[in-house]
Amino acid sequence: MNVQMGDILIPQQRIAQRVGELAAQITADHASVAVADGEITIVPILTGAMIFCGDLIRRIPIAMKIGLMTVSSYPGRSVRTQGAQMLASQLGDIRGRHVLVVDDILDSGGTLGIVLPALRQMGAASVKSCVLLRKDRPQARSVAVDYVGFEIPDVFVVGYGLDYNDYYRNLPDVVTLRGQTVAKT
Question: What are phi and psi of 137, to 5 degrees?
Fold first, then answer.
């Protein structure tokens, strides 16, 4: 793989801190649901959200089930979304259940645009969404999301589950690819 890393956009320590904050907020918001109904269903969007979701759920002390969905928007070496396509799901019966969808990044809204309505059609009692990153793009800002980890510039990023051609998911930080500059604030 001949792609070079650019700048660290979000260091692992800041990610860990924010995941803890999100977990506390999700726990507080679902505490009455969990008491009344027993549990929630967490649905990570694979493969990008698996690391984020793993860290997140370990910090949510609520009984939960996990369902899986695979959606692809960036096949292969693409750095621009090609449109979201649902590839597979292993959800079990979610009728009457409270569902939290966990995704890695919101850039076009395509993934949540197909996943959230599908879960509602399957009979979920409620559906909420949590994304690690939301890009500063009109399409992303127009999508209602219940929990957002970080707002980021409109650059292509990898690491902490996000990939380029299925590489770099294992990086502990969120990093730009070389050649993409990020304004320092």
Answer: -140, 145
